[in-house]
Design goal:
By secondary structure, the protein is mainly α. The chain has 13 helices and 4 strands. It has one domain. It has a two-stranded antiparallel ribbon. It has a two-stranded antiparallel sheet with strand order 2-3.
Length: 370
């Protein structure tokens, strides 16, 4: 038995989300105005597109939390979303390449990145499967099906190619399997198989090795392979304690590539300083803690696993992006959720947060009495 509290969602999580979106919109304008003027003859292109994406996504959240039934828990929704994500990833490979990659589906002038939706659909799928098979997780046979599904998705993402997102999907899924009750020795088989798959794709592309070498030895080739790593560190370091103030970044003047997307955290460091970067980390820490609280208080196993998985998906992506910006990992195309420019990322991240907020409205009667 459950109790549904209309609009009794976790206000702290919601306000934290709004704060991250607001910071993102401000920093996107600051970091992209000059690029937007050069490319589109007006400085507000990326800024306005992010605002439109945020408004649509927030409206979607209010639709989600207004629905009484946990629609995201049904067989049809979970497997339908999984199938839809699989089809979109397949269609990506047939689309014209953009920047030598096939990461987007393009239709009527709009672009969507299916790998963002794949993360959410896999979280819900694993939550559903682990809930349905909770009494049989001791058997390795039980894990064969989800491992096959995960391998197919990882393979499709690697073919785009998007090595960073593939690793992120693997990490999130592994954590969910562990939380759901899978045995460690069974997870080792998944790890060995996935590492083998990653190794094959890693050895196939020399530029991936070059990116790793650029992180370890950026000054061996400072104008080419190590350029992005060096410029990112310069942006972070030049900000000092309080930063140069909003709009005063010099690295965004075509020195730092992808300043409004993958490396927006570097611009935050330059313009808002250490105080600003610590504030962003604090906001993600709050999001992480509220997600864990929602998971702990969730009324059933599906909701507990789904809430934990969605939280880990957002926070682990943020940590991976920040790690790369600080020069501790090779650039992979991973954006900073809720802050970097990217409507696909924003829409899918807020879809996940909408489900988290819906779960926070549902309480088991036994837990209410406690």
């Amino acid at each position: 038995m459950e109790i549904f509290r209309p609009y009794g969602f976790d206000k702290t999580l919601f306000l934290t989300t709004l704060a991250l979106i607001a910071v993102g919109i401000i920093m996107i304008f600051s970091s992209s105005a000059i690029l937007s003027s050069e490319k589109y003859n007006q400085p507000f292109h990326f800024y306005l597109n992010q605002i439109i994406g945020a408004v649509i996504s927030l409206a979607m959240i209010f639709v989600i939390i207004s629905i009484r039934k946990p629609f995201y828990q049904s067989f049809l929704f979970v497997h339908g979303l999984l199938t839809f994500s699989f089809l979109l990833l397949t269609v990506c490979l047939l689309m014209p390449a953009i920047g030598n990659t096939n990461r987007w589906v393009q239709l009527f002038g709009l672009r969507f990145q299916p790998s963002e939706l794949a993360k959410i659909s896999l979280v819900l799928f694993f939550a559903y499967y682990l809930d349905q098979k909770k009494d049989k997780l001791d058997s390795f046979k039980t894990l064969i099906f989800p491992m096959v599904v995960l391998s197919v998705f990882i393979f499709l993402v690697l073919k785009e190619p998007d090595f960073g997102t593939a690793i992120l999907i693997f990490l999130i899924s592994s954590i969910m399997l562990f939380i759901g009750g899978a045995r460690l020795r069974h997870l080792l088989f998944l790890g060995i198989g996935s590492v083998t798959l990653f190794a094959v794709f890693l050895f196939q592309a020399s530029y991936r090795w070059e990116r790793i070498a650029a992180v370890l030895y950026p000054y061996r080739d400072p104008l080419r392979k190590g350029f992005q790593v060096i410029q990112s560190k310069l942006a972070i370091g030049s900000g000092g304690l309080f930063g140069a103030s909003i709009g005063e970044s010099t690295q965004k003047l075509f020195f730092l590539p992808c300043a409004h997307t993958d490396f927006i955290f570097a611009i935050i460091g330059e313009e808002l300083g250490l105080i600003g970067t610590l504030a962003i980390l604090l906001l993600f820490l709050i999001l992480f803690l509220r997600g864990l609280v929602i998971s702990w208080k969730a009324p059933n196993k599906f909701s507990q696993i789904a809430a934990a998985g969605l939280t880990m998906a957002i926070v682990s992506q943020a940590l991976l992006n920040i790690t790369i910006v600080l020069g501790l990992g090779p650039p992979t195309g991973i954006v900073l959720p809720l802050i970097s420019f990217g409507r696909s990322s924003l829409l899918c991240t807020l879809f996940g947060i909408g489900i988290l907020l819906h779960i926070s409205q549902r309480k088991g009667k036994s837990k209410r009495k406690q």
